[in-house]
Design a protein that fits this description.
Length: about 500
Amino acid sequence: MNTLLLRHIAIDTYKENVAYLHRNCKLYRSEGFQALSKIEVTERQSGRSIIALLNIVDDDDITAPDELGLSEQAFAQLGAPERIPVSVAHAPVADSLRQVHRKIAGESLALADYRAIARDIAANRYSKIEIAAFLVACSELGLERDEVLYLTRAMIETGRRLDWGEPLVVDKHCIGGVPGNRTSMLIVPIVAAHGMLIPKTSSRAITSPAGTADTMEVLAEVELSPDKLHEIVRSQRACLGWGGTAALAPVDDILISVERPLLMDSPGQMVASILAKKVAAGATHLVIDIPIGPTAKVRDRHRALALRKLFEFVSDQLGLVLEVVFSDGRQPVGRGIGPSLEARDVLQVLENDPRAPVDLREKALQLAGRIIEFDPDVRGGGGYAIARDILDSGRALAKMEAIIDAQGRRTGPNHLGRLRHDVAAARGGAVTAIDNLQLAHIARLAGAPMDKGAGVDLHHKLGDTVQAGEPLYSIHAEFNADFQFARESAERDCGFTVS
């Protein structure tokens, strides 16, 4: 029998099951196991099994020759105690990989194909290398609009689907590409204070210095169980949580874990990812924000119109009421780029602080107004005034405080990175262009979003007049290596055009 004793290895392999086998294990050579091959691990008593990627170790302190180690995720999925006997065998090849090869060859796939791929990814039958091959094929060869719909449906079916028992459940999503832009953290309390149900489950950053969940985590807990999520939404009419712990379209989270290091975000995959999460979260009405700008994800109106058509097609097939809004993506929204800096901007707007970024406030009010107009009792065009009154009166701040308390207020220190460097203008003149991609890159090099206090604090925006030597923005970092990387990148290209 190919039996070993189970061992828990405290290594976070992030969305991938990994097993550890000692090179001197009796099964290593007799069964022909190799590093990075996939194995099936079965708990002998219950018959439960998982698929894992195999790593070979030479250190008895990690795994002894008579043991099989499992990473954090794999151990939790198997659900067996340590030292219990497990059997190990070569894992069967996932049948759906044939469909991936067809996609790589340029073929269009059917709904059944995407369902099979999604099921196998959810069951951890794919390595991250195989997932990357699937994503690259979808990105480089493109997805037909029917394929985007099929992928969306397949991802929805792999997880929970929330039902709030109400005919009007609203949500908002921005496709990203513009740093700052934390409008969701303003829209949610405004809309909830109006009385509408807005269970906002957000993503963490993929290619940006912060996602909504990363920024909200500065103020409150965002990893909410499904039961906790329901409790908060029922009491507050809203939440601002991370979608990963709610088991909503979990295949999307696995795909994102591969997209992030590859810096990939193709249109078809993006539409499927966004709409799968929103439908799974129970939304019936959705506003999509598409920023347009030379360094945003969408560079021109022609591409924005094509993306809007794709969103509208898939949403219509899913029975989701959708409104797409085009916005100014020529520069960051607000002043902060990075979780703590963005949280500061949000609180300043909620508190009606005179220092609050005007552009962030105005964009949030415009989008909140569009959502409020989904309310059949609100006349068309009246949403903006309602949103503004809710914000100005302090009701939005009160609702945000209640949401933070319900989710679990963060009480630890919230400070900016201790290392600071001011990036100065090389010449005097007017700011005529700001490179979103470069500023986001600098903020990520500084440590955002992993280090909440890292990022970029803008002192000037488009149209401002600056003097030579005047600071354009400040870089904040916690660790010296990150700080140096960010400074060097800013020295090569500061991201600002002054002319």
